């Protein structure tokens, strides 16, 4: 019997999804070499990671960029960097995703200009700009401008690509980061769709797109989602997403073409769910999470990128990324997954799961819309508070053992791992000389251009920003004149202003049911009495450009529940601002959170600042993704404690903070 003729088989295999790895570090030239190697290994698309200065609109020589250049992505300061980044890679034939958000218009302008220089017809260029700014206010923190101005930039990009780059996905609605910030599946679907509604409403209301072309807009909207290890629930979530998206686009925007209403999404599986403890367990987590977005043909991702097993330890090496790519290739080409129709059609269990998520997500969506939309929900702090509370509940379940994390809160006994054996470099190291080279490069670029042309382009950009004119043409003029990333963003900062998002702490739930918290409260209160102060005061600081604030916020919530008075001013602070706050608020302890890898630059800057301010006695603790060798260096520099992801018990961390305060004041432990 012909195996291909078996009942239920598709007449031909479904085509595989676009396979990517999220990559970029050090410099444009180094990243280009990595791209070429990955493409040669069978990767079918590019996913560009930009460093934090680029994502937040700063050049490498800006004060806030110190220690951040080239660490979590590639630095891109001007057109020359993009030429080097894609040298020898034909952009007309490539599908490129760019995680860039606030400066998405700028990077798209750079990308399109380089593609045109290569001789590419822009109508052929395919790819995606991750341009969902709402989740930046809630999770990643790489926003620049206020929400309304940010939505205006997104609408302008959509209108431009509809006209000039019709195969490009101009916006990527990202529920990925909502899940990392604590969202339940219901919240993830509801909040992400509320963002999509805000984007589509902004395009419709801008007057740049005729009503009859809204279907063309809808079909280019893509989503970027997260997939956790509860992969059955993840399958249901994706089917629920598709059902609600079909309903919204048909009923709210009148899109009759079913093909245009199709829910299109790419996925990166859950990086923050990977563990530092027994990191080899991350392999099976990644595989299960990949299944959640590939098993169901009717809700299958069209692009997948997987993290590496060691991302909880630091920056993955090329070999680690290759391993993740091979996981996709084995599933797509060795297994029979792509040979069958949807495996869950008619499943009563799956139907019930999907219906439950649809019902709950519709309630969340309606609540946000009744508030006036997602911008209002951001500005009032409703969305951030809801996510902080959900993440606190998730942490509580992990701490009390309700949610099992193998190797972390159960089955912690282990043999030494050969993957992280002594003498083996388990992660990629970024050369400290990268930042100096990038700084010299951008200064050389500025010196070699026509200053008058730059001034004229920036003047036009500011003038257009003060009107309702689409800003893409002015941005392209800036690209051609040689304007830098920091100058483009700086000009718009002058018009739009900068934004400080709500922290979400005020409405966050506490650690109800934590039996150990009472004892910590007693230690906090007792220590305050011994010091003769009303309450112990903790400053939680986020130095540099790292915007991943989930951990810092959870520490702040638990410390507050334990009786600390918490000073938390949000993300993206200079060392000087943190020192000034510590002195002015007369705190007893400074806690710094750094997840970008810049700890060896950011933390000593704060320590030096405290000494210069006469508060070298003030204890400092640090939390983040910090290799053991770096932790030793920080302790040698004067840091009292270093916490990493393996320190998952928040109440235990708070108890240790009390010990640090007591030690620094000569009190008995």
From TrEMBL:
Pfam (any one): B12-binding
Gene3D superfamilies to which the protein is assigned, alphabetical: Cobalamin-binding domain, Methylmalonyl-CoA mutase
Protein's UniProt keywords contain Transcription regulation: no
InterPro entries from the UniProt entry: Acid_CoA_mut_C (IPR006159), Cbl-dep_enz_cat (IPR016176), Cobalamin-bd (IPR006158), Cobalamin-bd_sf (IPR036724), MeMalonylCoA_mutase_a/b_cat (IPR006099), MMCoA_mutase_a_cat (IPR006098)
SUPFAM superfamilies: Cobalamin (vitamin B12)-binding domain, Cobalamin (vitamin B12)-dependent enzymes
Annotated CDD domains: MM_CoA_mut_B12_BD
Cofactor: adenosylcob(III)alamin
Keywords, ordered alphabetically: Cobalamin, Cobalt, Isomerase, Metal-binding
Domain B12-binding: 535-664
Any one GO MF annotation of this record: cobalamin binding
Family annotation (PANTHER family): COENZYME B12-DEPENDENT MUTASE, METHYLMALONYL-COA MUTASE, MITOCHONDRIAL-RELATED
Family: Belongs to the methylmalonyl-CoA mutase family.
Subunit relationships: Heterodimer of an alpha and a beta chain.
Protein name: Protein meaA
